[in-house]
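Annex B. Sample input.
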Amino acid sequence: MTAAKTRSASGVPGLDEVLHGGLIAGQLYLIDGAPGAGKTTLALQYLMQGVRDGEHVLYVTLGETAGELRAGAASHGWTLEGVEIVELVVDEGQLLGDSELTMYHPSEVELNDTTRRILDAVERYRPHRMVLDSLSELRLLAQTSLRYRRQILALKQFFIGRGCTVLLLDDRSGEGIDTQVHSIAHGVIALERTVPAYGPAVRQLHVTKFRGSDFISGRQDLVLRQGGLKVFARLTPSDHGVAFDRAVVPSGVPAMDALLGGGTERGTATLLVGPAGSGKSTIAAQYAVAAARRGAHAVIFTFEEARTLLLDRLRALGLHVEEGCGPGKLEVRQIDPAEVLPSQFANLVREAVELAGASVVVIDSLNGYLNAMPESRALTIQLHELLSYLGNHGVATFLVAAQSSMPGAGIRSVVDASYLADAVVLFRMYEHAGAVRKAISVVKKRSGRHEDTIRQLWFDAQGVHLGPPLAHLRGVLTGVPVEVETPPHSKAGPGDAQAG
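Annex B, continued. Sample output.
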């Protein structure tokens, strides 16, 4: 492999996946973003990765002092040992008037002198990786766009052939985006930070240019916390998948499996939809518990119900199972929609599938998942990507979607994901004999046949129960059924199936 195609690991979790292996060594890159976007943190992570790889690394700063850089690194638990820092800023003697220059002011310092000091530092340390922070000072020193562009081109020509990968940081202090450097750099990584009307700031990264390699396009979610930046690459299902046997995933309740024409299959997504309290979450959890009891690993991602409350409720129904991560265990992950990013959630699902080996995944509910999306349109796209990924890995996925409705009223779903699901199980509340009861039916199944009946559903300490078809009632789905004197005659029995 030639040096031009040798990859240089970024040290930022998830970024190398976006770049399909990392930066291409020996090239010049622009890290673009407003103050506070995370440019310095990314640069330090890149240099520390170089130290771990046994490379010489150099940080040239035209703004911050070495003390400020080390203090910022210490806030992340880093020491910057092995990172050479060269300050091209005013020193204490200049501030006290011990030199001819008493202030670092762009109009009073020659650009050529600053550039020469940068090149001298490179010649002295001969780094494999280098960061120049920041271009805003060079832009001010140049004073004209022509002179500035010439200096950047000169720097690029200097680094070509020296085997040094350079990150140029730009804080967008100029007017608009600096297209001068965008056209010169081999690659451009932009960092964005937006503050919504409510909730924490949202950070994203997108690669606008990357010569010599493909990359994952579009905006990628990222977080900046103690320990540095972490990027959550946008999920591309075509890049993931394993061979699997499309076996049936039983629920552990024979009547439920019969309703679904034998049960649901691996690699499919089942949507459980109905009003609050109709039993959707319990049925989804039943599949997860049954999988764990068979020795598989199942995960429930709950957006609304507290983890401890969910586990207590399952135990009250006799659904006892060992909690944890691994074969024969059920893991319950409580998700805060206000804190988790869309791609971050997809990353959590990937970890459960690829690292822990989960074969059953429950997302409860899509309404909470929707609240984690910046746009309603993004929900459909990202949900499609996530379901395609899970299908490619042979995971049986169960999606819970609540509907805003009361018995007798029209059903309104907050999010319509029925066309994305392979099977749709419908839950209803209905009034009968002075009590509110639950009903369950299957309205769609792509992978085979299913019952066309409506059955009563109830729960007790012995678990989940389904009654016989409600053939004596008409209008169950409206919420207020009426008695039918003579059950309708049909050649098809209650257990017979119908094409989905």
